[in-house]
Every structure is written in C-alpha cells, then in structure tokens.
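PROTEIN DESIGN WORKSHEET
SECTION A - STRUCTURE
LENGTH: 708
TOKENS:
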C-alpha cells in the first residue's frame, strides 16, 4: 500500500513535468567558499572516488552528482589550459627554427672553406688538387695491376676471366701445381708448391652476411694470396731477409733486402711511425691440426693467448676450407692485444686470416691487415697495421708441433708510450714473436697437463681427490687470469697524476657496474699502478708468489701467515701452478684464496681472488665452475727492456742482474651491491682502494729494500 501511495505522489508530480521541461533549466552557482574548498581538494586529488565525493558533499551541502560534474569540468578546463600553453611554446619554437633556417640559407650564399673559414679554393688550387688525386689514382691502379698479375701467375688465367666466375658457386682456385717464382730455400732448392683449394662459400654459414660485394671479396682473396707468398718466404728463408743480432742472437729483419723484394708504400706517413719485426720458433705440446682449429676459432684463439689477446671475433667467413685440413680457410677477423699495464696502449687490428696446408703435416697461417672501414667501424682511428705475419706449423711424430712465427707490424705511435714501458715496447719485446711463441708453448703445456689424469698435485689437506675436481680448479684459474688481463685496459679510467713518483706512474682507476656472468653483481672499483724496481724480475716474481713472504705485502692479511693447502702444477716450470691458499684471518674463516702464477719469456704473473668455501667445493667436486663469481687482483712482473736487464723471468742466468724490472699492481674491489648508485660512495671507495694499493706498493718496496 505504501508503494501505491508513493506512486500516486509521483504521478501527481509528473503533472507539472511538461510545464517544467518547457521552462529554462535552472543553474545553481557555487559559493566562493565552496569553490575554494573544491579547488584546494583538486590540487591534492583531481580524481576523487565515490566516498570522497559524498564527504565533500556533506561538507559543502552539495550532492555527490554535483561534486562529480564539477571535477569533470575542472579536469577538462585544466587540460585545455595546458594544451594552450604547449601550443604557445611550440609556436615560439617554430618561429625560432624558421629564423635559424633563414640565417643558414643566407650563410650558404657565401661559400667558405670548412677547414679554416677562409675563402674557397681558387681555380689554380683546385687544378693542383685534381692533379694530385690523378697521380694517386694512377699509383693505386698500378698496385692493383701488380696484385692481379701475381694472382694470374697462380691460377694460369688473366684476372679478368676470374672476375667473370660466379662468386659463390664457381669452382675453387686450384693452385696445387703452382710454384713461387724466384723462391729458394736456404739449401738452394725450389720452395714448396702452394695448394690454395678454396671451396665454394657456404651461403648458410652462420658467419656469412651480405656486407661485401663480389669485387671486394675478390680483392680479399688477392690480398690473402699475396700475403701467403710473402710470409712463406719470410719463414723459410733467413738470408737475405733475416740476420742474427750480435747482442741477443735474435733474428732482425733487413729492411733494405725486404723492401727490394717486397716493395710497398708505408701505411702511415707520420714521423712517429715505425716498423716492428721479429721471428722465433719453438716446439709446442700440441698436434698441428689442433693448433689450426684453435687459431681459426676466435674463442679458442683467446684461450691460447690469455695474457696477450683480450678480444677476438670473426666478422665474416669468406671460405671455410677443406674438411679435415681447413686448407683454404679465409676469414675477416678483429683482435685487440693488450699487455702488462694500463700505461701500454691496446693494439687493435682488422685483418684477414688465411690458412693453407702447403705439405702433408705442414700448415701456414697468415694474418694481414685489411682496411675494413664500414659503418660503425672507425678504422681511421687505429694506429697499428699488420703486415704479412703469422706462423708455420710443422707436425712432429710425437704429437707435438714445431711453430715458427714471424711478427711484422707498422706502428703509428702518435701518443708516446709512457717512459716506464718505452724501452720494452719500442724494443720489439712486448708484442714480438718471442713472447707470442713463449705464451703459446706455455698454454699448450698447460692444456696437456689439464688433459692428463696424472698431473702432479700437492694436496696437503686432502681437498682435491678427483681428476675432475683438479680440472675444474685449473679452468677456474684460467678464467681468473683472463678476467684479470681483460680489466688492465681500464676503460673509463680516472687518473690521479698527483700520486705519481719518480719511478711510479701514479694510480689509475676505473669504476664500472658489473652484470657479466662469473663476476659479482654491483659496483666494482679497479685500480692499477706500475713502477720500476732496481731488481731482476725473477727476484720480484719469486718474492710475490712465495706464501711465506705474503705477510710482508698483503695489507688485508693483517700480518697473519697464510698456508697453501693445494698445489696443482700447470707446467714444467715451478712458477706455473694453481694454488688454493688458506689465510689465517679469524673474521674470514669461510674464505679461501685461489691463486694462479705463470712464467713467460717477458716476465711473470701472479693473480689471486678470494672465494668462499661453498663455491670452491663446487669446483672441487668437478662441477661446472663458469658461474662461480670471482674478482681477481694481482701482479705482472717484466724486465724493463733495457739492454742490461737481461731476459725475463724464464731466464736461468744471473737473477739479480744489472737491470731492473717493471711491476704492475692491480686490485679490484666490490664496493656496493647492484642497487646502490651513489657518486659520493664511489669516490669514497676510490679513496679506500687508493690507500690499499699505495700501502701494498710501499710494503713491497720496503721488503725488497727499494724504498730509498
């Protein structure tokens, strides 16, 4: 009944409805107090919910629907005002750009020289430039004709006919019956035939890309063939190319004889350019085919030279080579060489690597720089040019190989090498064939020890019982050395020259955020310094790797002794080993040290990293160790390169000698986790690491009586 009574009431109200709809709609204006309250609330909350609208309605005596409509209108009004302001700013920017455009058009009417801002070239100057370019063009055509004639001798047909061959499906170049004109060995017999059996390019090869046109690939093939011819003669023939030095019995390239037989223009025209050349041979503990495969794989190539090659990659495989021998393999590669200290500039090359089997069991691998100036590849900034260099690998019956290496590089030393390393680098010792062959010999020996189940191991605490555990520890030590050498370039460096001394380079810092696998996540401060010591490098090396002497320089040990609980030999020399060291630090009873030391012709290296016991147990059980985070620090010792300094740490001569040694000390410290990024924190960490490295250097100098 109440519902019906209410319905009647509503019906009675509807009787006035038509009259009210005919009239104008009534608007209720808000009072100033209501608007002030709504404006204040809008600043804090432009989108109130239903509960907030009801609360405002009760405060202001308004309905929730009125509150809702007011906020909608206010948001629309605010948006319109913002758009009007943005349009005004864009209109002003457009007017400014139009004015600049008009000014540029007026400036273009008066042509000026972009180099000096003066008037443009006159007609006479332009003609002289054209004549100069025509002369250079004629010289390039002459060089191209020489290379074309050289290749024509090998294939027995003009170069124009070779250009007509299909680039990817044409027959391979058969040079098995060709001989080198005017080539003789030391005994006066003709040189071996060059078998250049280049198979068709596999278009499905994962390294292939469409970057090179067919003519450029042909030029690469010609360049590689000419470099192979030159390198074989340099490797097989001593005189007239090479003579032994009277001072150190090393081979020295005779520039006059070389340039008479292989005439070529210098790549760098500056007065600071120089030529480095060297030759060395040795027997290594690896068969020839394994060596060839490792040289043609960039990752394995870096593993063979962890203390020299910091980066390597294959840009394009032009020819894969014959299956089983890799003869005819040709690829464009990139490498970065960096050694010893942040004070030594890295050397970067784009080069062609060409492999050829010239006899049964004999391979030659040649590297020659190639002008790879493509997009994103600033080749013009490179200051090193590799002339035909590489090695001859002769397989021996006992599973070993004889490797003869020739290194021939043109260097444009625009920024002079730091005085500490000037003699060593300029004297062709740092990047020479002797160091490359010595490193290869040591690494092949290390790989043989890695594969041998009977590798000598001195396990005082009985921690390593499985051959798999020993291999895992050795692999972890190898990765530690690679990581340590990789950070020595100190990219993004910060120099503190005020810390330098007479025989010290100062401290160089690098702050980076690490997200790479195998390293702890967070901010890492790297610090390195190099100094000269008046001692033979063997003395310095033995002092640093001696566990009994560690308390004299290790600041973090707080004077407490350390104990070697496991020792794994990685080579015949006693300095080549991987060790597990237990420090006697009460606050760090869950931490061990993994240490790797090695000896090369140029010097020695000691690298160590703290590692917790659960992680080291993972490696000892033979499990995968690639994910174990390590942050290595260490030392690199070398001779100073002066004539009276003698050989490196591998020398068995007078240990003290009359020369000195160069010592690089490098530390890495994790200063904060991945979430922290505070500039002040970084600078405080740099100061802390600076104190650490300075104290270590001072302690070493005092212990070796070199503090005066």
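SECTION B - SEQUENCE
RESIDUE ASSIGNMENT:
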């Amino acid at each position: 009944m109440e519902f019906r009574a209410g319905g009647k009431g509503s019906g009675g109200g509807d009787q006035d409805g038509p009259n009210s709809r005919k009239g104008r709609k009534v608007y209720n204006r808000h009072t100033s107090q209501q608007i002030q309250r709504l404006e204040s609330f809008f600043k804090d909350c432009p989108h109130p919910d239903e509960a907030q609208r009801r609360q405002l309605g009760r405060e202001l005596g308004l309905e929730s629907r009125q509150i809702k409509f007011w906020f909608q209108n206010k948001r629309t009004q605010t948006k319109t005002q913002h758009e009007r302001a943005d349009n005004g700013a864009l209109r002003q920017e457009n007017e400014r750009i139009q004015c600049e455009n008009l000014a540029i058009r007026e400036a273009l009417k008066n042509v000026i020289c972009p180099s000096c801002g003066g008037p443009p070239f006159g007609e006479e100057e332009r003609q002289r430039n054209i004549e100069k370019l025509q002369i250079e063009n004629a010289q390039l055509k002459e060089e191209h004709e020489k290379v074309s004639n050289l290749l024509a001798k090998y294939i027995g047909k003009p170069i124009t006919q070779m250009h007509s061959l299909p680039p990817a499906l044409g027959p391979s170049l058969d040079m098995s019956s060709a001989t080198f004109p005017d080539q003789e060995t030391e005994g006066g017999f003709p040189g071996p035939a060059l078998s250049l059996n280049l198979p068709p390019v596999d278009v499905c090869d994962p390294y292939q890309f469409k970057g090179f046109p067919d003519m450029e690939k042909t030029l690469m093939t010609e360049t590689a063939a000419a470099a192979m011819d030159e390198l074989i003669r340099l490797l097989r023939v001593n005189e007239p190319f090479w003579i032994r030095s009277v001072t150190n019995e090393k081979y020295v390239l005779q520039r006059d004889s070389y340039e008479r037989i292989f005439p070529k223009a210098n790549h760098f025209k500056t007065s600071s350019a120089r030529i480095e050349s060297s030759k060395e041979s040795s027997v290594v503990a690896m068969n020839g085919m394994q060596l060839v495969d490792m040289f043609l794989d960039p990752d394995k190539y870096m593993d063979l030279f962890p203390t020299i090659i910091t980066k390597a990659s294959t840009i394009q495989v032009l020819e894969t080579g014959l299956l089983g021998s890799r003869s005819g393999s040709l690829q464009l590669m990139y490498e970065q060489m960096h050694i010893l200290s942040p004070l030594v500039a890295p050397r970067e090359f784009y080069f062609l690597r060409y492999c050829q089997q010239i006899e049964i069991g004999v391979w030659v691998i040649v590297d020659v720089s190639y002008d790879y100036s493509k997009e994103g590849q600033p080749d013009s900034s490179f200051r090193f040019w590799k002339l035909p260099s590489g090695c001859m690998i002769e397989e021996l019956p006992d599973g070993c190989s004889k490797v003869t290496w020739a290194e021939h590089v043109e260097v444009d030393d625009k920024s002079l090498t730091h005085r500490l390393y000037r003699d060593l680098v300029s004297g062709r010792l740092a990047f020479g064939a002797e160091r490359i062959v010595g490193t290869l010999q040591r690494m092949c020996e290390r790989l043989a020890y890695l594969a041998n189940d009977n590798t000598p191991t001195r396990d005082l605490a009985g921690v390593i019982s499985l051959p798999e555990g020993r291999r895992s520890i050795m692999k972890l030590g190898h990765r530690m050395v690679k990581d340590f050498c990789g950070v020595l370039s100190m990219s993004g460096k910060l120099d503190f020259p005020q810390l330098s001394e007479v025989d010290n380079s100062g401290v160089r810092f690098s702050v980076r955020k690490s997200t790479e696998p195998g390293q702890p996540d967070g901010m890492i401060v790297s610090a390195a310094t190099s100094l000269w010591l008046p001692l033979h490098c063997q003395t310095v090396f033995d002092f640093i790797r001696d566990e009994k002497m560690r308390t004299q320089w290790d600041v973090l040990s707080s004077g407490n002794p350390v104990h070697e609980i496991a020792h794994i030999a990685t080579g015949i020399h006693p300095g080549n080993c991987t060790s597990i060291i237990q420090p006697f630090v009460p606050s760090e009873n869950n931490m061990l040290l993994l240490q790797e030391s090695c000896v090369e012709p140029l010097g020695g290296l000691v690298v160590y990293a703290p590692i917790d016991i659960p992680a080291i147990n993972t490696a000892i059980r033979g499990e995968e160790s690639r994910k174990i985070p390590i942050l290595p620090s260490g030392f690199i010792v070398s001779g100073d390169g002066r004539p009276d300094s003698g050989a490196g740490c591998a020398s068995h001569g007078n240990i003290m000698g009359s020369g000195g040694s160069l010592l690089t000390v490098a530390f890495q410290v994790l200063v904060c986790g991945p979430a922290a990024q505070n500039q002040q924190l970084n600078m405080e960490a740099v100061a802390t690491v600076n104190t650490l490295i300075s104290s270590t250097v001072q302690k070493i100098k005092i212990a070796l009586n070199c503090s005066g």
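SECTION C - NOTES
The longest helix spans residues 64-108.
The radius of gyration is 37 Å.
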